[in-house]
């Protein structure tokens, strides 16, 4: 299992499908997605939209 | 690759390749950029299309088609199955081949195509979009363009960079998981749709046959509800219960923005097409054909604007007007219909299925279904008649 934590959100790269659904619902354009990695920048306000929308649960709020 | 083009298209999905093809045909110099290593892969799509709409944009080739279908089967929450014959041929495509050849057609028309080209920002000239910044393999490049067309799909950022409001609300985002699996024993003549407000809130589960027991099985639910259970977990439950012997050949995640078209899809030197512009049908989530219809218009308008030397927002608004006339206005009505359909309880869905089953098969058309379902909602009927009259 490969987890990295950014802005209080933990990201499982091994689960991620790089589908971009999280990017589309982020109100602050805080997610940078490339073909094989994802970064959450300091623009994040921890609204949790990305966590709840991810079809495969690759994102999780660290405090949950 | 040059450093300067009339038009740069970001994203080589069906919309981007179609926009590039029509723009190139009009004589403009066009660059089509795709971040992935191969066009057509991965396929985040159930691959279903109707013949009539698609034929208006491209001549359909037999080898793009995995399976011909003649109608749909609607499955109610308590599993009544209603077959409905369609008034047009339907196809389940092989999008790997389809997307690839659409890009090839753009190249044949004169566009320059480049993969492994990740666009990460816009260039601005006098406050208007004037090109893109991209990473190609390990080099950083800048390409100037008079018009940038954002066809960058659901994750679209081209519009955001230009200051357009492109965010999708949670409720309008269908969050989806899909497998392509073998040993899915279904009638190959029908695409199946399972409805249940409890199991698939704000969406549905689908089985689209691809021939020889192969099928795309997936589901989408509204982002309003995915907090409680992920689409992938819902799909897993369905497969375990229904097709325990299925072999899973591909698993993908994805999303479809199911809203009317974005308010702003053009700016000075800027256009959005396809999922980037929220042009999928808000009820079904089908976005291949509608995105390509928009992209054809956008490519032609962009080409004409270049020829005239006027790429202002005002000039490019012709695209918006033609799109609204072609599909955009209908999508506004579909959006109302979506709210109606997805508010039906499981009991109401079961009742509707029984009414349909009592109808003789030849009378079971989508129009009749809506007629009987909408009797209680006259204002919606008026909207629908206006949109389709
Ligand atoms: C699970 C699922 C099932 C679906 N089923 C159907 C169906 O049966 N029928 C139907 O009609 N529609 C279906 N859809 C919707 C359909 O897939 C989309 O509407 C359609 O693919 C949109 O086409 P597009 O060209 O706008 O975007 P896409 O096909 O998403 O193409 C966008 C392209 O842009 C590229 N890109 C993105 N950002 C960048 C960047 N920064 N730089 C360079 N390139 C970039 C991407 O890699 C991608 O190749 C489904 C969607 C999902 C998620
Ligand atoms: S929605 Fe989930 S699977 Fe898709 S890119 Fe974001 S983190 Fe990855
Ligand atoms: S938590 Fe909200 S603001 Fe932060 S990255 Fe996710 S969607 Fe964006």
Structural notes for this entry:
The complex is a heterodimer of chains A (64) and B (389). With 64 residues, chain A is of the alpha+beta class. Chain A has a single domain (3-61), classed as 2-Layer Sandwich (Alpha-Beta Plaits), CATH 3.30.70.20. In chain A, 16% of the residues lie in helices and 27% in strands. Chain A is built from two helices and five strands. Chain A has helices at 21-25, 49-53; strands spanning 3-6, 9-12, 31-33, 38-40, 59-61. A three-stranded antiparallel sheet of chain A has the order 1-2-5. Chain A has a two-stranded antiparallel sheet with strand order 3-4. In chain A, strand 3 and strand 4 (38-40) form a beta hairpin. The longest helix of chain A has 5 residues, at 21-25. With 389 residues, chain B is an alpha/beta fold. Chain B folds into three domains: 4-44 and 96-168 and 259-328, FAD/NAD(P)-binding domain, CATH 3.50.50; 68-85 and 170-257, D-Amino Acid Oxidase, Chain A, domain 2 (2-Layer Sandwich), CATH 3.30.9; 339-388, no CATH class. Chain B has ten helices and 16 strands. In chain B, the strands form two sheets. In chain B, strands 1, 2, 6, 7, 8, 9, 15 and 16 form an eight-stranded mixed sheet that branches. An eight-stranded mixed sheet of chain B has the order 3-5-4-11-12-13-10-14. In chain B, a hairpin with a 5-residue loop joins strand 4 and strand 5. In chain B, helix 1 packs parallel to helix 3, helix 6 (288-308) runs antiparallel to helix 7 and helix 7 (313-342) runs antiparallel to helix 10. Chain B is globular. Chain B starts with a strand and ends with a helix. The A-B interface holds A 17, 19-21, 23-27, 29, 33-35, 49, 52-57 and B 35-37, 42, 44, 118, 153-157, 160, 167-170, 173, 175-177, 223, 226-227, 230-233, 251-255, 257. Bound molecules: flavin-adenine dinucleotide (FAD) and iron/sulfur cluster (2 copies). Residues 10-16, 33-36, 44-49, 118-119, 151-155, 176, 178, 218, 254-256, 274-276, 280, 285-289, 291 of chain B line the site of flavin-adenine dinucleotide.
């Amino acid at each position: 299992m490969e987890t990295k934590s950014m802005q209080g959100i933990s990201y499982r790269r091994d689960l991620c499908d790089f589908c971009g659904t999280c990017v589309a619902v982020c109100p602050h354009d805080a997610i940078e997605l490339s073909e094989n990695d994802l970064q959450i920048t300091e623009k994040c306000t921890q609204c949790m939209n990305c966590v709840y929308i991810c079809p495969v649960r690759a994102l999780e709020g660290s405090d949950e | 690759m040059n450093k300067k083009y009339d038009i740069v298209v970001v994203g080589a999905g069906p919309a981007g390749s179609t926009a590039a093809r029509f723009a190139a045909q009009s004589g403009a110099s066009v660059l089509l950029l795709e971040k992935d290593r191969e066009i057509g892969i991965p396929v985040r799509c159930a691959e279903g299309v109707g013949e009539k709409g698609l034929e208006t944009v491209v001549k359909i080739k037999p080898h793009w088609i995995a399976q011909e279908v003649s109608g749909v089967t609607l499955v109610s929450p308590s599993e009544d199955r209603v077959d409905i014959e369609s008034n047009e041929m339907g196809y389940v495509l092989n999008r790997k081949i389809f997307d690839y050849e659409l890009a090839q057609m753009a190249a044949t028309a004169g566009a320059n195509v480049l993969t492994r080209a990740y666009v990460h920002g816009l260039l601005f000239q006098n406050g208007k979009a004037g090109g893109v910044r991209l990473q190609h393999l390990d080099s950083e490049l800048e390409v100037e363009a008079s018009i940038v067309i954002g066809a960058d799909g659901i994750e679209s950022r081209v519009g955001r960079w230009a200051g357009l409001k492109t965010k999708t609300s949670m409720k309008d985002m269908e969050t989806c998981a899909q497998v392509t699996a073998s040993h899915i024993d279904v009638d190959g003549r029908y695409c199946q749709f399972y409805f249940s407000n409890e199991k698939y809130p704000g969406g549905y589960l689908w089985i689209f046959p691809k021939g020889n027991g192969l099928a795309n099985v997936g589901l989408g639910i509204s982002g309003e509800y995915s907090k409680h259970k992920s689409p992938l977990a819902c799909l897993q439950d369905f497969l375990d219960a229904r097709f325990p012997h299925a072999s899973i050949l591909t698993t993908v995640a994805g999303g479809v923005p199911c809203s009317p078209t974005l308010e702003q899809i053009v700016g000075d030197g800027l256009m959005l097409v396809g999922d980037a512009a929220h042009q999928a049908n808000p009820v079904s989530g089908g976005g291949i054909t509608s995105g390509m219809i928009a992209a054809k218009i956008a490519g032609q308008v962009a080409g004409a604007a270049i020829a005239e030397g006027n790429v202002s927002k005002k000039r490019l608004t012709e695209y918006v007007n033609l799109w609204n006339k072609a599909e955009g206005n209908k999508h506004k009505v579909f959006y109302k219909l979506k709210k109606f359909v997805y508010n039906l309880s499981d009991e109401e869905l079961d009742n509707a299925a029984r009414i349909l089953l009592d109808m003789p098969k030849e009378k079971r058309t989508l129009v009749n279904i809506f007629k009987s379902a909408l009797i209680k909602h006259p204002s919606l009927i008026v909207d629908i008649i206006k949109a389709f009259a």
